[in-house]
Design a protein that fits this description.
- There is one protein chain.
- The chain is 26% helix and 30% strand.
- The relative contact order is 0.23.
- The chain has a five-stranded antiparallel sheet, with helices on one face.
- The model has no long low-confidence stretch (mean pLDDT 96).
- It is built from two helices and five strands; from the N terminus they run βββββαα.
- The longest helix has 11 residues, at 65-75.
- It has one domain (2-75).
- It is of the alpha+beta class.
- The two termini are 13 Å apart.
- A hairpin with a 4-residue loop joins strand 3 (23-28) and strand 4 (33-37).
- It has helices at 55-63, 65-75; strands spanning 2-3, 10-14, 23-28, 33-37, 43-47.
Length: 77
């Protein structure tokens, strides 16, 4: 498992022994959680309210796509 530094009120984590499309887990300080596909930035599970809280998350995933994909593949060969 790789935990990245918190940004604002959220943090990204990538787990090993995962399945399906490459994704990240995003945890918010209020306990909200979502799983987001790295390639498409589609929400795979969970929810956050209001949805606009995800804007910075989507920007971060887009900016760091290669890094997150590489780490996902390293942990999930």
């Amino acid at each position: 498992m790789t935990n990245y530094d918190a940004i604002g009120d959220w943090r990204i984590r990538i787990n090993g022994n995962e399945h399906g499309m490459p994704h990240v887990h995003v945890s918010f300080k209020d306990g909200s959680r979502v799983s987001i596909a790295i390639d498409t930035r589609e929400i795979l599970a969970g929810s956050v309210s209001p949805a606009k809280r995800l804007a910075d998350v989507f920007t971060d995933i887009a900016a760091n796509k290669a890094k997150y994909l590489a780490e996902y593949r390293r942990l999930n060969p």
